[in-house]
Amino acid sequence: MSDKKVRVRFAPSPTGGLHLGGVRTVLFNYLFAKKHKGDFVLRIEDTDQTRYVEGAEEYILDCLKWCGLLPDESPVVGGPYAPYRQSERKSMYRKYAEQLVGQGHAYYAFDTPEELDKNRKEIPNFQYGQAYRDGLRNSLSLPTHEVTELLNAGTPHVIRIKMPTDEKVSFNDLIRGHVSFETNQVDDKVLLKADGMPTYHLAVVVDDYLMKITHAFRGEEWLPSAPVHLLLWEYLGWKADMPQWAHLPLILKPDGHGKLSKRDGARLGFPVYAMNLFDAKTGELTPGFRELGFLPEAFLNLLATLGWNDGTDQELFTLDELIEKFSLERVSKAGAKFDFEKAKWFNAEWIKKSEAASLAPGVKKVLEDKGVVIADEDYLLKVIDQVKDRCVLLPDFYQQAAYFFELPKEYDVNAVKPKWTDAKTAFFNELIAKQDTVTWQAPDLEAAFKTLAEEKAIKVGELMLPFRIMLVGGKFGPHVFDIAQLLGKEETFKRIKTALPVFSA
Hints:
The chain contains 20 helices and 13 strands. With 505 residues, it is mainly alpha-helical. The strands form six sheets. The chain has a three-stranded antiparallel sheet. Strands 1-2 form a two-stranded parallel sheet. It has a two-stranded antiparallel ribbon with strand order 5-6.
């Protein structure tokens, strides 16, 4: 590790939803920075104005806030290397592009989009590079005076890197080890577009240098861009300051064949975005993990284990534990298959281990959205503690907890009526009559219930299910006497009286 302060960045484009792969990139950046007492920077790469989506930046910030992965520097909080939106840094990129032209490492290209389309149609696997650049309209093929005239006339043009011939460029990836590329296989990427905006290739190098980024983590799909970036760091004279790179493994479809996409989520019935994303143009709502009922702790936990492990059998980690244990040496080179059932398991485990008070805001929203009135916050906490072990997603709290706040809307009478008898009606009427003799604690209530059943010569098992359905409406919930204790004596007997005519009818 260098003596420089660790500085990492997440640099998304505001063009749509934040894929779970993107959040994992944020997480690994964040864990690495915090472990090494460094800074986590959020930089918005909005140079492609044609793909810009209104509200997308706010969406990204909301996702990071929900996950608890707050940047130390960003367009919102500012920082010593502001601005943190590339569109606001536009003026600084041209000088570096022009510097590369002056050095002979880049050139002006005046080809129109129509001319390039024509070439693509006529030439199989056409690439703008060493094989064809001499026959195209650029400052390498045109006379100097013509290039000057075109520039003076304001003719639209781009600036392209001039990839060298027959060279190898290499670097040491922190996950993959030695990686090497043949320059002949790489085309002359555009560095500066006709509108003066930089492409990703130029902007990422310039910004990483100016913002003193020490480590750059990104998905392995960016590996083909590495030779362009390596050469830019060298050509601009910054090679000694180049960040160490780590290309993270892909998150794969459940069958392991290919990168997980939004389309896969829609097809298989699970989200791939951190939060709901609404497309104002199409009216399409793409679901997110948050709205489905995932806890952020569980979401981060499952992402951490997609391509990383700490070398033990431990599966549940707090964020602080992840910071302590995280290391790039334990990140896999191979892609990680996404398993939605495992994702739900993480959520169920986190619901179990969470304090009722931390679950309360989410549970309260679930219940109130369904019309359940919550009048007593302390009572809500007791209810959560009773039922949380039975919930996988936050919306499960509605079925598992609503009956603690309101009478059952319906009864599973089919589970009761076939075996209902007058003797059972008499049992429950006598239980009501003896209510003042029962101490209202679950063990005492259970003992009284069983004693009365013996007196009436009715098997306790034949009475427990009707009692449960009287209280909750169906065959679910925690231990029935614990339910009765929490409901209270008055409410319990009110529910028995309400249900008896239904069962006896």
